[in-house]
Design brief:
This protein is of the alpha+beta class. It has helices at about 35-60, 70-100, 105-110; strands at about 115-120, 125, 130-135, 145-150, 155-160, 170, 185-195, 200-205, 205-215, 220-225, 230, 235-240, 245-250. The strands form three sheets. Strands 11-10-9-1-12-13 form a six-stranded antiparallel beta sheet, with no helix packed on it. Strands 2, 4, 5, 7 and 8 form a five-stranded antiparallel beta sheet that branches. Strands 3-6 form a two-stranded antiparallel ribbon. α1 packs antiparallel against α2 (about 70-100). It starts with about 35 loop residues before the first helix and ends with a strand. About 15% of the residues are buried.
Length: about 250
């Protein structure tokens, strides 16, 4: 004969309810709770909700388990709270990026790069058929400057004697024999020469006009008019087209 256990020996069926937030919040002069306190209150409710849900699963009456529909409702509430927390975090990041609440944000500062002519120090660049513009910053201090284009193997495929008085120069993508260089990684090496002095060699900085500032997985990048992207930290000089003022070494 099977007897039903007395009800006072079984755990009582729990009904999940969300308690009021226990986090105290100060009130601003306008009657609104500070953003940080509201976020803390949501986080406290989220943790309490998770604790109650876990306790309910452990202590429910095995003869009268919670109906599946009720579990679905509770899990939906759980998901809603989680999404609310994530949304708040994203909104905080967006506010900080676009203006920092009216104090001038990161995008406002980055926007100042638009329409500037820059020089960027790079060890190598990707060639895809378009001409490559570069500068020779120290050309006025020497009698002659030679630009050598090297492929990814370090082989010189083109040598150009620079005039010494141009603000920028360009490699048209041709090799010494006049053939079109294949797409790939290249670098341009400058050699400065003067009578009685040891030649000085350095990488040629790329030049171009900034048309866009874009965030990537590797951080903020400046997109140039020719389609190339350079890191802000690689910029060694910038010129404003309106004032012709030259800014050296990221002094923007």
């Amino acid at each position: 004969m099977v007897t039903t256990p007395s009800s006072n020996l079984l755990p009582q069926q729990n009904t999940l309810t969300t308690p009021p937030a226990t986090t105290s919040a100060s009130i601003n002069e306008d009657g609104a709770e500070p953003e940080v306190d509201r976020a803390s209150a949501i986080a406290a409710d989220f943790e309490t909700f998770l604790t109650l849900l876990t306790t309910q699963l452990k202590a429910q009456d095995p003869l009268q388990p919670v109906e599946s529909t009720q579990f679905v409702e509770q899990l939906a509430t759980f998901s809603s709270v989680e999404q609310q927390l994530a949304t708040n975090d994203k909104l905080d990041q967006l506010i900080e990026a676009v203006g920092g609440g009216g104090t001038g944000g990161e995008l406002d500062s980055l926007g100042q790069w638009i329409d500037r002519d820059i020089e960027a120090s790079v060890d190598a660049f990707r060639f895809d058929g378009e001409a490559v513009d570069f500068a020779a910053p120290q050309q006025n201090r020497y009698d002659g400057v030679t630009a050598s284009v090297l492929n990814s193997n370090g082989d010189v495929i083109r040598t150009m004697n620079l005039s010494g008085d141009e603000p920028t120069y360009s490699w048209d993508g041709l090799t010494t024999d006049g053939a079109r260089a294949p797409a790939g990684d290249y670098s341009i090496e400058l050699t400065y020469r003067s009578s009685g002095q040891v030649p000085v060699t350095e990488a040629a900085p790329l030049t171009g006009k900034v048309v866009e500032v874009r965030q990537t997985e590797d951080g903020w990048r400046l997109q140039l008019e020719n389609g190339r992207k350079v890191a802000i930290d690689d910029v060694i000089a910038a010129r404003s087209n309106s004032s012709e003022q030259v800014l050296e070494e990221n002094e923007t």
